[in-house]
Amino acid sequence: MSHRRKGVMMVVGILTEKPSAARHFAAALGGMNGTYNGEQFVIAHARGHLYEFVDPHRMVADPDVAGKYRTWDLGNLPWDPQQLDWSLEVIKNASSVAADVKRTLCKCDEIVIATDVDPTGEGGMIAVNAFLELGLKPGKWSRMYFTDEAPASLQKAFAARKVIPSLLDFDEYRKARYRSQFDLLSMQFTRIATNMARQSGQDTVLRQGRLKSAMVKLVGDQLKAYNDYVKKPFFQNRFRDENDVMYTNPEEPRFDQKDQVTNQYGPSPVVLDGKATKQTAPPKLLDLAALSSLLVGKGIKAQLVLSTYQSMYEAQAVSYPRTADVTITPEQFDELAPLVDKIAGVVGVDVKLLTHRQPRKTHVKPQGAHGANRPGPKVPASLDEVEQRFGKAGRLIYETLGKNYLAMIAEDYVYEQQKGHVKDYPDFVGIANVPMSAGWKAVFDPDAGDDTAEGDENESAKGLGTNAEPFVFEGANKRPEHPSMKWLMKQLEKRDVGTGATRTSTYSEVTSTKTKYPLLLEKGRKLTLAEAGDMSWRLLPGTRIGDLALTEKVYADMKEIAAGTGPSAEERLAVVADWVREDIATMQKNAATMRSALGLKEEAVTRKERAQGTWAKTGKDVVFAREWGGHRFTDDEVARLLAGETIEFSAKSTTGKAYEVFGELGEGTFKGRKFVGFQKLGFGRRDASGNALPPASWCHYTFTPEEIDLLMAGEGVESSDFVSKKGNRFQCKVFFREEKKGEGKKIVPDFEASLDSPPKSWCGVAFTDDQLAALAAGKTIKGTGFTSSKGKKFDATLAWKDEGGKRKLVPSFG
Question: Which H or E element spans position 683?
Fold first, then answer.
């Protein structure tokens, strides 16, 4: 049924999260605009987030107060959230996308939020931020809910879209905005920790955050437990039969030394007490964190898993990435059921193993949204095709995800458990688990190839034996597990913190070697603390930011805020100020312990002076180094740089040599990090028109005005009075030109060029016109008062002639 306004069909505007989603919507509805199910529509797309919070100091209206939000001094903390207006700005390079959204949707009668439906509400906030900032005001707002971007899902979601009475009260927006506000306030904890490091003489940035700090704390504590482990051996009487099954008595005493164990037992037959058939269900479906944990041991970094998986999702080869579900719905099970055999053929699983074709209650439940991570509706022809399109990471992702899903359709792992005892010493009992049917293990075993995984210590291919021999068993207390990504993700999962995608993206950030100060380091499967991470770990004990309960609280707050229950977001954010005060005091105490443990002294790092102001080029506030090449910019030069003007000044090289340079404020890159600062445009001076001027002198030779004009005209200047760094005079022709592109003009010597005419001076004596004419005619001249490079006076007879392939002045003495 069509919707009309005074005889005109109403237009429904649809905003998707990214261009790929827009293409999928277009495929489902019949184009980027048109009519579907009797309704006229038009599709626009974002590109992820289009808007972000401005810097904290720009959120404060009072300029006298704003300064405290800019600087990192502890005296300026904590911030008052009520002083922040939480204003947004368009993200760099997103202006044109935002303009397209406004142009496409501005005349729509209804606008639909069709961004990703994720558990944190991020997709909803992306849309609402854009609508509010762009000033869109249709007659109606609505939301589409979909589990994937297959045509049937999108068509169903379009027909069943739900009205949103108010954008500001939209549950997704409310909870996501609260989380982003909290995370901006958590910048204060980074400033606290960084201050502690700099007061300890370390010029570093210690990034803190809800999940970052929790990861560092968990890994640091586990590393300490692992490294502090002291092996405590024990010795005990036990039995072992011919099938290597062990028989133990829990009441048997343990001894510290082997010779303390009394030899009081002899060989004895084994009595079988009973047999029972047991089975275990397939492992649960993988989330992104568990998937990435399996692949990190194969050399695939977490960031690559995230980016590759996203591309594969957009191609509908895998399901939605940022899901919080650990099961799938019956409908989702039915959707993939016809594709199971095809998926099995791609990942190399024998379909004869896939006989459990009915939904398992452990894996398939009616509750859920996107469902757990699994293969998508578009099944590739082969793994080679996947690798060709998505690389090695894509191949491993699809193979692992496919086999994990297919394991659910395989039968249970079945084994026979045999229990028995030693006949003459019945307190010694043994258990043997004899595999009978591999079931799902023949399809997918998540522990295969992982030497840190714990196997079944009672598994035995032969079962109980018939005779047992006594022996002295040597055991020890178990060493704590070395932290790894797999271990860390399990700790976070136990506490139900974030989705698998959130854990994976944060893990990727703290382990990235592209950042200047990573917190964690990967060494194969193992995790260790980076230098910055080690300092952070020592600062975190007892802090709010280092407590995993903080993240648990934020997620609990998000659920209540979305539901409209409990205190307001403003009231919840107000308590952060007290937490900051507490953490300042706690980290100050911890800093003393950190310095003692790491051999650091309490000494402040001398920070380079910074200039700041609004850069005319971008209209944004910037901070940049106030010194360049030994030159400190004056207030006037700072103002001119901010205004976009080019300035020139005298700088010094690392060897102390003075030189002229000119440039402007611009963006640069240092070790992969972008910054704003002075950017050199060229060397030397400039005239009133902005043209580069040659230097007044070069190699202790001062150019005449006429020679300056020649150099400006691109011609060469010849002299025999240039002096090298070692004090030796030399002869050459020099030009004023650009030797390397982008470095500006400078004096460039040409030692191969022959001089066209006799030099106008030699060894400190200028020749007369008659002397120059005589030399040019091939005659010799006599001169007095020449000065050597060592300052000694001498007389000489000079001739202008060829020597060594070059025409030059040749002296003779006597």
Answer: strand 673-683
